Amino acid sequence: MAPLPEGAAARVTTGAATEQLELAAAWRLLLACRSTPLESGPLGLDHGGALSRAPGDAWISLDTAAPRAWRPVRARPLSPASVQLFDIYVPLLARPSGESFVLAHLGQSLDGRIATHSGDSQWITGDADLEHGHRLRALFDAVLVGARTVELDDPRLTTRLCEGPNPVRVVIDARRRLPMRHRVFADAGAPTLLLAAAGREGPRLPTGVELIEFQAEPDGSLCARAIVEALTARGLSRIFIEGGGDTVSRFLQQGQLDRLQITVAPVVLGSGQTALNLAPIDTLSEALRLRSASFRLGEDVLVDCEVAVDREA
Ligand SMILES: NC(=O)c1ccc[n+]([C@@H]2O[C@H](COP(=O)([O-])OP(=O)(O)OC[C@H]3O[C@@H](n4cnc5c(N)ncnc54)[C@H](OP(=O)(O)O)[C@@H]3O)[C@@H](O)[C@H]2O)c1
Q1: I need a surface site. Which of 129, 160, 243, 293 has the fewest CB within 10 A?
Q2: Pairing verdict, β 259-264 and 101-108
Q3: Three-state DSSP class for 49?
Q4: Sequence ranges of the chain with CATH classification 3.40.430.10
């Protein structure tokens, strides 16, 4: 678990029910921040539940220049759960609005696997990490997955385990090989964008599914930077890549990830699909060493890493 901000531990609210209420209100504050450009200063909710910068309403004080971007205000005691909620999500929200921000998350075993050989991956990590995934869906504009995740998991990609809006769903299926019976295309739960290579024929698109075509590379792949630019141009500047390993690896390899989150569960698969696959390196000096913070999610540990993004790549 991340260390508590100075003084927070001494001001912990007691009582499980009070803490749950407080956590729900803290989450509502984060949701309210979702669509507002955030500046340093006090931040809270007014009596009507709207975002307020009045010092009297303040829950927290934002400091966009600080590493975790917030600190508690003296008048408001916070439970450790709320402190962790702000520690995890405030840094993701306190960013210049309209600028691309790409975060990828994977849940892996102790031995670095995200699925068995047969593709079974539900679930490696526990309930708290599942909820974290839904919180990310609620805070981001778009949730993006690769074709194999749709094929094997048939995810809905909507926000269900916490309060919050559904993101626009984005599927990379460059070859247009996926049938439209998958839920992300067929359930009308939220708009879906299908990213494919220009000129590919495919099944007729249901209402609510839109095709975006890209000039593919000679090997048939779509350029990660072009994807980020196209989504940002549509107002989808906060992009959450939910998997799988191949898709996350391509964005990381091409310098298009701002943040990489890996949740490690105390589970050993011993075989199966590795989380990340990047170009081979010879020496440890070539390894990506990332600045990180870690958080306890039930039995699992979330490692939240900053990545040096290269938008000019
Ligand atoms: N533990 C977790 O956090 C987690 C999360 C999500 C999924 N999963 C599991 O991970 C497995 C799927 O992951 P995966 O790594 O095999 O596949 P994936 O990342 O879901 O999908 C990879 C496929 O997507 C297409 N694709 C992605 N990026 C592309 C690009 N830039 N250009 C062109 N095509 C692109 C390609 O489709 P084509 O094959 O058509 O070329 C590629 O083979 C499943 O078993 C799933 O259950 C685990």
Answers
A1: 160
A2: parallel
A3: coil
A4: 101-306
Nearest atom in ligand 1 to 123's CA: 1
Mutate to test the pocket of ligand 1, among 137, 246, 269 (most ligand atoms within 8 A of CB): 246
**Cβ of 117 less than 6 Å from ligand 1:** no
The total of other beta-carbon atoms located within 10 Å of residue 202's CB is 15
Residue whose pair of structure tokens reads 């269900």 in the numeric block: 160
Tell me which H or E stretch contains 129: helix 127-139
Q: Which atom of ligand 1 is nearest to the CA of 149?
A: 20
CA distance 105 to 86: 18
Can you tell me which residue has the tokens 């031995």? 111
Write down the pTM of the prediction: 0.94
* CATH number given to 101-306: 3.40.430.10
Which amino acid is present at 195?
Answer: L
Nearest CA owner, ligand 1 atom 46: 149
